[in-house]
Specification:
By secondary structure, this protein is of the alpha/beta class. The protein has helices spanning 10-21, 33-40, 51-60, 70-74, 98-110, 127-138, 158-163, 175-184, 186-190, 200-231, 235-243, 264-277, 283-305, 334-344, 357-363, 373-377, 397-403, 418-423, and strands at residues 2-6, 25-29, 64-67, 79-82, 115-119, 144-148, 168-171, 195-198, 315-319, 348-352, 368-369, 382-385, 408-411, 427-429. The termini are far apart.
Amino acid sequence: MRITMIGSGYVGLVSGACFSDFGHDVCCVDMDQAKIDALHAGRMPIFEPGLDLLVASNVAAGRLTFTTDLASAVAGADAIFIAVGTPSRRGDGHADLRYVFAATEEIAAAITGPTVVVTKSTVPVGTGDRVEAILREKRPDIDVAVVSNPEFLREGAAIGDFKRPDRIVIGTEDERAKQVMRDVYRPLYLNESPILFVGRRTSELIKYAANAFLATKITFINEIADLCEAVGADVQDVSRGIGLDNRIGKKFLHAGPGYGGSCFPKDTLALLKTAEDYQTPVHIVEAVVKVNDSRKRAMGRKVLATLGDSPRGKTVALLGLTFKPNTDDMRDAPSLAIATALADAGVTVRAHDPEGMEQAKAMLPDLVYCTDAYDAADGADAVVIVTEWDAYRALDLPRLKGLLVAPVMVDLRNVYQRTDVEQAGFTYTAVGR
């Protein structure tokens, strides 16, 4: 099949590369000439394990191409995916859909025959209706079906998630569109990946509901972690104890400094705004957003408390800046709130991250950026683990202690066992234990 992917960001590039690996001919479109030039040169605009090799192999096979010329890419395509950004709109938290509708206008001008337009971007309920209305108004002469096909990719594991999905959700009641989407996903269907056909509005809501539920699990265990600290319990054991219940499951029950990234923060806000518009408030999600925001600030205070009564003038080594490991994504990362709280208190922050430092420099320009964890710890009064990168899971504790002014470790991801760290001579502070 011939597939066009509008948008070559995280979702568009990963999806396009995986579709081409299935044997489809895929053209990824982006208006950013620098990004397209970089892709032609084999440079990825994002960090995602294995993506560079996947792109290179399919470009070499002639199945994957890149362009800024949307019209030529769209003409004759069997399926056109819209995978542009839908960030939170400044001021009110609604999803900003201007890029979706701009892409739709361009698609309408470029299509040459029957096709299927698929919204891969995360969009509020009813967006597909508006996309369809634009296409029918602009091109009443062409049979165009509009489908919702939300993505469920985890940053850092996106290729595996795409090729071995829990489910594929397709929102359409158009029989021709259903067959096109079956053909698009046929390799996964043959591997018995479940395909769920639902109404378009239902599909749009599934994405938001899924992310809100996962955000709720994270926030729930973070509040339980605070209770564990107060009563002398261990949140890791609590998590294991409840996670063994198949009705609950163990995933997303790891206590930490709060969720961030490209999806959960903006999708929970967008769901709240949609619920408000339809006068059906979702109070649980409201509480999740509020608790998560306050937790990030609380983690800054937790670190400051380890520095004594007068933190001003002291230095902290911050290990991990991205919102999770195996990505360079800094969007809504807990490190932003933690580093800001430390700086506001007069603390010097020496930071390291294996992939995210270039992105972090634009957001946190006053930090001292270091070559590795030991460089960051040199002369610091405490070391703080914010993101659980593998590079921080087996630190040489005696070496680390020798570099620190005071042997203090604040483990916000519960990477280490307390006994191991304390036996090495550290004062150890963790989350919920």
